[in-house]
Amino acid sequence: MKLFQQMLVAPAALGLLAPIAANASELNINGVSDYSAPSEVQSISDFSDVQPSDWAYQALTNLAEQRGCVAYAPQGSMTRYEAAILLNSCLSDISRANEVEQRLLAEFSPELEVIKGRINGVLADVGTVRADSFSTTTKLAGTTVFVVGGVDGVSDKEAVTFNYDTKLALNTSFSGDDLLKTRIRSGNFGSGPFSFASGAASSLEVASSTGNSLDIDRAYYQFPVGESITATVGALVRQDDMLGVWPSSYPSDSILDVLTYAGANAAYSLAEGAGAGITYTNDNLSASLVLVSDEATDASQGILTEQGSDDITAQLAWVADNFTVAAAYTTSDGGNTTDTADANDFDAWGLSAQYDLDNGISLNAGMGWKSPDKENDASNIEDESTWSLGVVWSDLGAEGNTLGIAYGTAEGHRDDSGYDDPMAYEVYYSMAISDNITVTPAFFSIEKDGADDVTGGLVKTTFSF
Q1: Nearest in space to 13 (alpha carbons), one of 125, 128, 122
Q2: Dihedral, CA atoms, 460, 163, 458, 167, nearest 10 degrees?
């Protein structure tokens, strides 16, 4: 019998004895609970009903001594349920029971059946969420990330901080081929150098700033249309949720946000809002067309209006056994109605590729271009380019451990006189402590145009459940 089942035997037996509470003075309740598992049983000197002169008593005594089920041999009588509990604890594998043990099983079979029924009922309640309280087609998946680290080069924000980010995803399928995804997120990165709220170059991909409140950050439904088309529609969905391919294996354990866009930061803008998209796949070919409307909840702006901010992305990709190549085009209007320069009103292109070697190394490269609808050199609203290179080395040092190295543009590079073309790089080593816990130390450096470099280090611990 498994240890967990053994731990449940005593409560089951006590529940059976509850109707005779009037005779509780004749029964040592603590003595019964002491026999719930072999490791917890100390003595059966308080047993009654099965007398020392009975054959069953002698057989149980011998069994206890041979199997080491109790610390001491019985010194007094016992009830039939207590005898059954002891027998149940000692005979974990009845297929190997000898003739005497088989006779004991037959003798106490009524009591054993009751005990077994109680145990199975408790295990069913523990191991299964009741259908009337939660959908049996829904699975909960979550991650919690702790980040301890600091930076050098950000004025008045160089102290070590300790932050967290938690994501809880409810994934529901109604047919086995569809997906209703609802994700809750919470984090406390605030306005520090790792947070998007501060606008820092050292923002981490994992950082969220909800002020410890629980926010819904995904709500969409994905379903097949025929054999080759997948459709997605949602009130809160991100661009990459709807694309057929993400053309990079870097990073496997993300650090700096700026190095997570497959080198094409504007084309893969990861716009969020209400959206819809379709993806067509045929053998190695994948083609996607997606729409994200940032202002879908605002009736004064809305979806696909002149006032609303809409992003449309088209992607064409080829996916082979050991490499992926993808091209993407994104057009964004930013809700710009003034016919003036706006950094969010642009067209962007991207070309990215991933190549996997046989030794666990994955090579990644990508580049992108962004062209605003209207330029304004004084506001740095002009043509930009981005690129990045990344290497992921899986199972380095130990199975499950991963080394990641990346180098790329720290922001969109402009063709301006005196512009420094700032770059960023990072190195991380993800260590698998268990199937559900990884610890990732990382170091990074970001150049800034006309300012001191920002360097930083952190240790990120990820718990998956």
Answers
A1: 122
A2: 30
CATH code of residue 291? 2.40.160.10
- Token pair 């006032």 in the structure block, residue: 307
Q: Do 409 and 444 lie in a common domain?
A: yes
Average pLDDT score, the chain:
84
Q: How far apart are the first and last CA of the chain?
A: 27
Q: How far apart are CA 105 and CA 87, in angstroms?
A: 8
Reported as a single tens digit per residue, the pLDDT across 126-180 is 555 454 555 668 899 999 999 999 999 888 889 999 999 999 999 999 988 999 9
Give me the domain span that covers residue 78: 3-127
Supply angle C-alpha 295, 301, 307, rounded to 5: 105
Position 132 in a domain = no
Closest CA to 328 of 377, 274, 390, 277: 277
Q: Write down the pTM of the prediction.
A: 0.71
| Angle made by CA atoms 99, 100, 101, in degrees to the nearest 5 | 90
Q: Do 163 and 36 reside in the same domain of the chain?
A: no
Q: Is the dihedral of CA 125, 131, 134, 137 positive or negative?
A: positive
